[in-house]
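Minutes, methods subgroup
Present: GH (chair), OT, SY

1. OT presented the first of two proteins processed in the latest run. Sequence and structure tokens recorded below as shown on screen.
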Amino acid sequence: MEQKNDRNVFIYHPDPIATGAFQTGDAICDCCKSPTSIFYTGPFYAKDSDLIFCPDCIKSGVAAKQFQGCFTAPDHCDHIGDPEKQEEICYRTPGYYGIQQEQWIAHCGDYCAYRGEISYHNLTPELLADFKATWNDRPQQIWNLEQVLGSLGLAYEGYLFECLHCGKHLLYAQRD
């Protein structure tokens, strides 16, 4: 039997192995019943959420449809007024775990690519400049940016996103 191990390109989650959304190892996809060497370990919101999916079944939307679930809740996506892009995030893109409910953020009228968790020690001058330039673009951010940056990885958990259009990096933060 041929083993599925292609890593599909997920526009909004370009490196899901690096972010921990996928793991490598031998598994059987609960959706297509095929062997896979890459399988999903991120959140799935459905009646049965303890499932293993291969990248193909997530990318095609079959996993979400077959098990009537989503990888990111629709009400936890920034509103951009494009239902097709929201469906791509919710039903065909690997999600990520947050300490509370994760949020998929948008910039330049489109959803951003999720790049992973970020802590104070990972901050670079480029990231700091981008965060300062984009922080006030996000009305949901109720905290002071300097306070968040100083406590990133301690009192606040940070999630790094990158705008697919302007290339700026955005920070989504949750309080511990």
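2. SY then presented the second protein from the same run.
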Amino acid sequence: MRRSDHLPIELRPVERAVVTHAHADHARPGHERYLCATAAAGAMRVRLGEIRLQTLDYGEPLVVGRARLSLHPAGHVLGSAQVSIEIDGHRTVLSGDYKLQADPTYAPFKPLRCDLFVTESTFGLPIYRWPDSATVIDEIRRWWHDNAAAGLAEGPGPLVCHGAVEALNRVYRAGGVTLPPTRAADDGIDRAALRRALVLAPPSAAGSPWLKRFAPYADAFASVSCCAPPATACGCPVSPSPTASACCRPSVPLPGSGSCPEIGSGVPFRCRRGGYSRWGAID
């Protein structure tokens, strides 16, 4: 980027794209050049391949035309960033996705003094209340042990990862993040070890031939998305999944049809066709 460049906010491919983090809904292919935080560079290249990429350390300024741009920790994933833009003494901060809870795998969210704060609000409704990381990790561990007790596994064993997950594990380790030992789910893995394994895969693997080769197994979906009212629904109100009852506690009534005996009336939860319940076996 040069001093004479301008900073459009566009959905279409542009010459210069400032990317807050390397998740697929933010890091999109087709731009001529990219700018991201230094810590996000590895994940950006895993996601997008060989791209023309410029990086900034957190807090490092870049003058673009009349604007002074800098990136600051957002606490979402490794290298996630808020974008600060200062023009004529007026500062606007674009949050990107962010999280306020502490996490050992990336820099924590840094509040910035500004004139205008533009926030992501996918889960901005007051019904969303998230458990702390230790609670979620304990739920996963107990689910793993319960499956072993039910005969679906011989006991907690190795962490086996889909190739897409293992590629990002390497990026995190290269960035100085300490992770437990993992290995890729390749053809050379011992079948006896697989019977004790926890297999980690992206949602796209659900129901795939790749996943079916691990049968028999129980699978579960680790995502806040099962809390959200879906964009398309079958229309019948249902009790929420364990995720919803655990972390969606409304503080105010919300408009909408339907009711939920575990959460209360007026909260628009709808069942999804083929939806998942967190940490429950899926038939």
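Chair's summary of item 2: The first helix runs from residue 41 to 48.
Next meeting: continue with the remaining queue.
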